[in-house]
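Narrative summary of target 7.
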Amino acid sequence: MPGTAADLPGIAAEQPGTHPALSACRFAGLELCNRFAVAPMTRVSATEDGLATPEMADYYAAFAEGGFGLLITEGTYTDRAFSQGYLHQPGITDEAQAAAWRPVVERAHAAGARVVLQLMHAGAVSQGNRFRDRAAGPSAVRPLGEQLDKYRGSGRWPVPMEMTRRQIAEAVDGFAAAAVRARDAGFDGVEIHAANGYLLDQFLTPYTNLRTDEHGGDVEARLRLVRDVTAQVRGATGTGFTVGVRLSQGKVNDPAWRWPGGDAEARTIFTAAATAGADYLHLAGSGRDWFPEGRTLPALARTVTGLPVIANGGLHRDAVARRVLDEGHADLLAIGTAALANPDLPRRVAAGMVRAEFDPRLLEPLATLDNARAHAHA
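Modeled conformation, tokenized:
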């Protein structure tokens, strides 16, 4: 049961019922009870063969029962070739994997939340794939930095294979087929992961995409894969099913990266996703750059495309969150680590109760649900 400011350490309490994120809304065809969304967070807690588990259903249900209007799942691999990025990552490549997600959806819906499955292809930054012993990406370029130990990786990234045209086409087909399985499993939508240095972002980034064919060159050519995946997913799932696209500048292995073309390049990227059929855009990591000269990337995306936008990054800070919504920078707030610390965050905000601080040990040494439970009971 949530505590009061007198008996719980953590983030200061809100005045009851005053936060703008508590208002119900219609977002990209979804009726939501509020504007709080759970950000996608990799938890590497599926079975070895990629099945969602009862523990995962409990994990997502806690957010729904805690009052979040929208749940965005962790990145889920889309094919049995090169898409898997982590050992014990969930997939949706066949009917068994799709069926394993149904309890997650059913429990989210029973608690009044909507739930979107994030579709992810790791590309060159795959560090655990049971189908292939080598990663593949746009070009044979070693990713920057080192593998992520909290997701069972270690050492430098290996040099990936350069994908052939056929392999690229197979990856596009994998996204579309996975989206259909997600729809049939009861999800309210899918979110195409084109952010954070994974495959679609690798094609977009000039230093990881050295191709000289139709997928390489200027930004319009480097956006081809984003457009093709979005259009194929949109076409395969039909009307009435929500399709979002997540975009970012920073990457898991290069957080300081920024689009070299600035606002002009951002406009091109946002327009490409929108015209290909996206129903919403999700701007990840935008909290690092809130309000430079009053401008934000989520606001630019909203203005350029007319689509609703989810903002992510630093939005557990009330002053920032309020301004993002009150000034129309975004439509929803995607909450990450603060949601891990407070699965009932919307209910705490509504009641004016204090929120717990995030404990990094929840994701260390592994970002698994078992590890989080061990620290929660320590």
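The radius of gyration is 19 Å.
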